[in-house]
Amino acid sequence: MYIILIAHIPRNAWTGWIPARFGFSDATEIFVFCSGMASAIAFGSVFSQQGWRMGTARVLFRCWQVYWAHIALFFFIAMYLAAIDVYGTFEKNYVNTLNLSHFFKDPLTNIVGLFTLTYVPNYFDILPMYLCILAMMPIVIPIANQSRLFAAASLLTVWLVANLGYLKLPAEPWSDRQWFFNPFGWQLLFFSGFALMHGWLPTPPVSKFLIALAIAFLILSAPVGSWKVFVWINSVLPEVGDTIRPIREAAKELRTKTELGILRYIHFMSLAYLAWIAVGPSGSRLISTGQGVLSSIWRILLGFISKVGQQSLAVFVFSMALARVIGFAFDQLGRDPIIVVLGNLVGFAIITGVAYTAGWFKTTPWKKRTA
Predict the structure, then answer these.
(1) How far apart are CA 155 and CA 169, in angstroms?
(2) End-to-end Cα separation, the chain, in angstroms
(3) Alpha carbons 350 and 145: distance in angstroms, whole number
(4) Which of 31, 105, 169, 333 is the one with CA 20 to 30 A from 258?
(5) Overall pTM surpassing 0.85 (yes/no)
(6) Quick one: 170 exposed, middle or buried, by C-beta within 10 A (0-12, 13-18, 19+)?
């Protein structure tokens, strides 16, 4: 959630250091994979304990929440940018920064497209993708309960068909542009996280060979997956850069973000495996038992991060709106290093506060408690 906020603040210098700058995968993969794991906890147990009908009802209720969160996010940001353009005296057209001028030129057509998810502007494409993947769960779970192998084969087939250029979803009525995040491709990563957490897939072995293989892939693939790393290498060793350039071009279809190309999937799973090894059993190495100042600070930070993760939908929606506000502030105040640091840290503090506020509301404190 913190990385996603950084990535969506316009012209934010910190985006030069997010995971997307050093390999194929980025924060989107983290979000989708962790959403799959969280869904196994939140929804998988309902299917197991209360049956398909109640499990499906639980998923549909979540889809309902995500759908209206998407609609509300769009209208708030559209209103906010329009208000700046209408009441401000700025040379920059802020509505055009998200290519929303089409919406305001033909609102009758586009409002129908917005509600039917046939109009999905680029900035607003993650939640529709997540919603569609959630809607697949009532189909996938009963198949997996009968045959995990057949379920895996089905998901891989859908992913492959999407990567071959089929199963496209229209993103706007005036062109043939498709959804930037194709749910039929990204479902593979979601259900990988779901399967690991739900017990469909066994715990990976702690293997020195697999660790070395994952590290080697992350390092050797970095110049192909990262434009930033490629530029570094090319500036120091132009001959090596000339060798890597055609490889980058050849791997273009295999690292596509729209359908989750195979190189992005392998890159993320390598990172996830190494992270799982690093944190230890049940994340034991994350939990500091020391008594020093640094240990206390780390425990506080870990609490913040955990709370933000627990309230991911509320935090995500708020951060996408907040990112445009911070970007506007940067436009007015400048992007000196101190201002950029303050802007990002204030953003972190705000979304952390949103997480705690959302968590507090979910406890329904206004209800009377019996002894």
Answers:
(1) 18
(2) 38
(3) 42
(4) 105
(5) yes
(6) middle
Give yes or no for a contact between 133 and 183, defined as CB atoms under 8 angstroms apart: yes
Radius of gyration of the chain (CA): 22
- Which tokens belong to 268? 């993320």
Find where tokens 């469909």 sit: 200
Retrieve residue 147's tokens: 């045959």
| Tens digit of each residue's pLDDT (9 = 90 or more) over 335-349 | 999 999 999 999 999
The span from the CA of 220 to the CA of 23, in Å, is 10
Taking CB atoms within 8 Å and a gap of at least 24, the contacts of 340-343 are 340/12, 340/13, 340/14, 343/9, 343/12
DSSP letters spanning 301-366: HHHHHHHHHHTHHHHHHHHHHHHHHHHHHHHHH---HHHHHHHHHHHHHHHHHHHHHHHHHHT-TT
Distance CA 47, CA 28 (A): 27
Backbone region of residue 144 per phi and psi (left: phi > 0; alpha: psi in -120 to 50; beta: other values): alpha
For 80-121, the DSSP string reads HHHHHHHH---SS-TGGGGT-HHHHHSHHHHHHHHHTTS---
Estimate the crossing angle of helix 126-146 against helix 27-39, to 10 degrees: 40
**CB-hemisphere CA count at 13 Å for 126?**
19
Residue 251: which H helix or E strand, with range?
none
Strand partners, 170: 178
Residues of the chain with pLDDT under 50: none
